[in-house]
Amino acid sequence: MAHPRVLEHQRGLMLQRVDRHAAEAEKPHKGNPFLPGEQDPDAVPGVNKLSRGTELTTEEAPHFIEWAKRNYPDVESLKQARNCYSSSHSREAAA
């Protein structure tokens, strides 16, 4: 069991964090991330703020498929890359 002073210190840190997040949530947001750049007064010129996530357009899909076939000749190599070396797993995996 942890020492009571350590527990009290950790509790204080947790409460500070909760208060900080509550204060951040109340702040007005600058700009609108869903507006095209030319309509957003806070946008940086030339930066596209909209994110499509992992979706590909019909123009992009053939290029991605060609790249994937070139880099992953079979399903096993693709599975290995996704399951072991994806940047979503850890920093070391992405290196």
Name its key features.
95 residues; mainly alpha
Overall description:
With 95 residues, the chain is mainly alpha-helical. The chain is 51% helix and 0% strand. It has helices at residues 4-26, 61-71, 75-84, 91-94.
Q: Hey, roughly how much beta strand do the residues contain?
A: under 5%
Give the overall form.
flat
Quantity of strands, as a count: 0
Helix/strand order: HHHH
Compute the number of helices: 4
Instruction: Please state the CA-atom Rg, rounded to the nearest Å.
Output: 23 Å
Largest sheet: none
Summed up, what is this model?
This protein is mainly α. Helices cover 51% and strands 0% of the residues. The longest helix has 23 residues, at 4-26.
Annotate the secondary structure layout.
Blueprint: H1 4-26, H2 61-71, H3 75-84, H4 91-94
